[in-house]
Amino acid sequence: MGIFLTQARVGVVLISLHWAVHIRLFAVRNYGPVIHEFDPWFNYRATEYMVANGWQKFQAWYDEGVWYPLGRHVGSTTYPGLQLTAYALHSLFALVKPVDLNTICVYIPAGFGAVASALTGLLAYEATGNANSATAALFIMAIIPAHLMRSVAGGYDNESIAVSAIVGTFYLWVRSLRSEKSWPYAVLCGLCYVYLVAAWGGYVFALNMIGIHAAGLVLSGRFSRKLWKAYSIWFIIGTSGAVFGPARYLVGWQPFQSLEQLGPTVVFFGLLIWQATAYIARQRKMNTMGLMKLRAQVIVASVLLAAVVAFAVLPAGFFGPLSARVRGLFVKHTKTGNPLVDSVAEHQATPSRVYWAYFHVVCFLGPPGCLAMLYKLQDAKIFVILYALVAYYFSGKMIRLVLLLAPAGAVTAGHMIGLVVDFTLQAYEASGGKKDSKGSKASAKASTKSGTKKPSAKADSKAEASVVPSELKELYEEQVGFRRVTALILCTIVGFCMWRLTTHAFAIAPSLSEPQIMLRGKGRDGRPVIIDDFREAYWWLRDNTPEDARVMAWWDYGYQINGVANRTSIADGNTWNHEHIALLGKCLVSNENVSHAITKHLADYVLIWTTRFAGMYSDDIAKSPHMARIAGSVYPDIKPAEFYVSREGTPSKMMQESVLWRLHHWKLDPKAEKPLHFEEAYTTRNRMVRIYKVLDVDEESKRWRKEHGPGYPPALQQVLAASKPFEQIHGF
Question: What is its main location (predicted)?
Answer without folding.
Answer: membrane
